[in-house]
Amino acid sequence: DTAAVLKAVFGDDMPPVVVAGHSLGGAIAIRLAHAIESNILEADYGLRRQHLAGLVVVDVVEGTAMASLSHMSAVLANRPPEFASLRKAIAWAVKTNQVRNKKSAQLSVPPQLKQDERGVWVWRTDLAATEPYWKGWFQGLSELFLGIHCPKLLLVAGTDRLDRPLTIAQM
User: For residues 82 and 86, what is the distance between their CA atoms, to the nearest angstrom?
Assistant: First the structure.
């Protein structure tokens, strides 16, 4: 899908791009960069190695992500299925530390919700339905990241979040 967006935006005149992503978006960015460098996307989208200028990934480490997956079902089970208002959804996000401060919640929570036919606010995406794919999103991510040859940057909160392959690579 990401390759299709690049093709739609740039057509056949694709400039070199820096691919960036945060969390799951970082996993997508790594897989896209790998696919571009491997010329997997050349036939369908015209994306070749020279189109990848760089890769920036924020807060996604395979080991940390894989360890967190076992807790995701409980997180989703404790999430209210609906809210009477956006204000209440934002207040819930701050109160439960889903988002650390009110300003961030005001920006990040509303796009995750949509108003249904009853006028209540419900989650836009059924994350529980994606559970069969969770491991596949993150397995092998560190080795893929390390194998990418373009200039790349990994930003994490601290080196304690690095898994074994990334710890060895940063030494």
Answer: 10
Instruction: Mention every residue, 6+ apart, whose C-beta is less than 8 A from residue 158.
Output: none
DSSP E strands, 24-115: 52-58, 82-83, 113-115
Q: Counting every residue, how long is the chain?
A: 171
Q: Which tokens go with 156?
A: 């994490």
Question: Dihedral sign, CA of 121, 124, 129, 132?
Answer: negative
Residues 6+ apart with CB under 8 A from 24: 60, 137
Does residue 167 contact residue 144 with C-beta atoms inside 8 Å? no
- Angle among Cα 85, 21, 122 to the nearest 5 degrees reads 20
CA distances from 139 to 64, 67, 109 (A): 11, 11, 28
Considering all CA atoms of the chain, what is the largest pairwise distance in Å, rounded to the nearest integer?
Answer: 55
State the pTM of this model. Answer: 0.81
Q: Residue 82's pLDDT is what?
A: 97
- Grouping H, G, I as helix, E, B as strand and the rest as coil, residue 18 is strand
What value, to the nearest 5°, has the Cα angle with vertex 113 and ends 57 and 69? 45
CB 111 within 8 A of CB 121: no
pLDDT beneath 50: ranges in the chain: none
Are residues 92 and 113 in contact, defined by beta-carbon separation less than 8 angstroms?
no
Residue 60 and residue 24 in contact, taking contact as beta carbons nearer than 8 Å:
yes
